[in-house]
Automatic annotation (TrEMBL):
This is Adenosylhomocysteinase. Pathway: Amino-acid biosynthesis; L-homocysteine biosynthesis; L-homocysteine from S-adenosyl-L-homocysteine: step 1/1. It comes from Korarchaeum cryptofilum (strain OPF8). May play a key role in the regulation of the intracellular concentration of adenosylhomocysteine. It comes from the Archaea. NAD(+) binds at residues 147-149, 181, 210-217, 233, 268, 289-291, 336, 343. Keywords: Cytoplasm, Hydrolase, NAD, One-carbon metabolism. The gene is ahcY. The lineage of its organism: Archaea, Thermoproteota, Candidatus Korarchaeia, Candidatus Korarchaeales, Candidatus Korarchaeaceae. GO terms for molecular function: adenosylhomocysteinase activity.
Amino acid sequence: MPKVKDEGLAGKGKDSIEWARAHMPVLSEIARRFLKERPLDGLRIAASMHVTKETAVLMLALRDGGARIFLSPSNPLSTQDDVAAALAEEGIEVYAWRGMSESEYFWAIEECLKADPDFTMDDGGDLTVMAHEKGYAERIAGGTEETTTGVLRLMALERDGKLRYPVIAVNNAETKRNFDNVYGTGQSTIDGILRATNIMIAGKWFVVAGYGYVGRGIANRARGMGAKVIVTEVDPIRALMAAMDGFIVMPMREAAKLGDIFVTATGNSGVIKAEHVSSMKDGAILANAGHFDVEVSVKDLELMSLAKRDLRENLREYLLPNGKRVYLLAEGRLVNLVAAEGHPSEVMDMSFANQALSIEYLVKERGKLPAKVIPVPRWIDSEVARIKLRSMGIEIDSLTKEQEEYLRSWRI
């Protein structure tokens, strides 16, 4: 049986889902086809995703395609309780509520795996890793992975020779990472910071740790709001890109002395540690936009601080031995999903369209794909872009036969 915080919130949740669906034309078109063709009939899908209104549109599209859905969260603090209640009322087996403990979080994931799924849909890798660690993977025919962190974890699983079924790296689709990661995270991270603090961005030193797709989006949105942006990196190519894009690049040990606002976006642990916090200004604000709460070392903050208190929702003050105060947002978890609502529906439209079409592809190719992390087929990526352009009223050119021949030939 589904387990949510308050079934009475279902009406409000349905309104939120309706609003999201109205801004997700690509996924809505796929859902209409799924309802007609039923390509997922009789299948069970276990999903670990942020339980938001956008995720709800995806889950309902999969249900309309004939699948039975078992949904757990991919973050203990990102669930929108009204949406969870609405999904439960719509027949989705959902185990999610905002503010889960760590044990409750992993309990919910295992409840979905106990349903004996045919396919998995993951965001961060916790579901897929548990499936492998606890012996659920042998029957599973395939899966998808939504985010950079999860793809990296599953590639490590593959390298160790332990991946038991094919997983499509949805995160790496061009219509996902070039839009969701860049524009979606950029906007929603700023949104989370503003909701938690209501501070002025303009004129402040804004430090972005990591200049991948996510960091690039955050840096550009912060600059657009008038911030003076510093980028820290460990990758020389990405550091060079940041410099060429006009950002100041320096090590975190130097940026720590200057920054007013810090956002981590690396997918790695210990990006901001005690040694950095000790040299920060009084009033520095720390936030994380990476998947797990390990980029800002909360453990270090807890150990080094003399006192702490919550001043606002998602805003915790730490008093340091030197008398200065620093402020941690959203407990060091994903600030855009904990302190705000995550990405806008319009950009999640493309990400989740890739998810739906990738699951359909896995069904059609069942038993034929290797147990590896595999890319989204190019035709899926292109189809998502074509539908999105059409929904925006944009028409593009097509290659002539002569141009196609020219591109295939080595002759001039």
